[in-house]
Amino acid sequence: MKYKRLTKEQFEALHQEFINFLATQSIDKAEWDKIKTEKPEIAEQELDIFSDLIWEGVLTNASYLEHFSKNHIFLFHCQEKLIQSIVLKALDIQVDFMQKEGLQWLSDNMFTDSVEIHLGKKDYDQERNAAIFELITQGAILSDGQLYLQINSIINSN
User: Fold this and answer.
1) pLDDT digits (tens, 9 = 90+) for 33-59
2) Residue 63 near residue 80, CB atoms below 8 Å
3) pTM for this structure?
4) Residues 6+ apart with CB under 8 A from 14
5) Is 5 buried (19+), middle (13-18) or exposed (0-12) by CB count in 10 A?
6) How far apart are CA 116 and CA 74, in angstroms?
């Protein structure tokens, strides 16, 4: 497996897509039930292949990621050849970016000595989708990029 198997909830949400996936292999419900019972290792392989296909599609379309922790916000723009990052660090240890108040504090203190801002970019040190998947397994979530774009715009206008 290249990525990781989808959760039961994810499979349920993608039920129709999984049926279509099996249909492309000429496997109907009766055949699938038979495979699960008589050849569980084949059923496991099918679940893994489907999971990888779904992950591949999601990762290929991923453009922005966010990772929030108590005192840091990591924002990533995943481009074709490289990844750009904006890292915001609250120097006030009372600030908690996991809370709404922490984000308000950031808004009020963005360009003070209480916030460190680090910009970075680097070429992927592995295949693009694998690098994005690794960030997701470390806690990053897919995002629409609004926060990255807003902060990038503010930084570039100063």
Assistant:
1) 999 999 999 999 999 999 999 999 999
2) no
3) 0.86
4) 6, 54
5) middle
6) 12
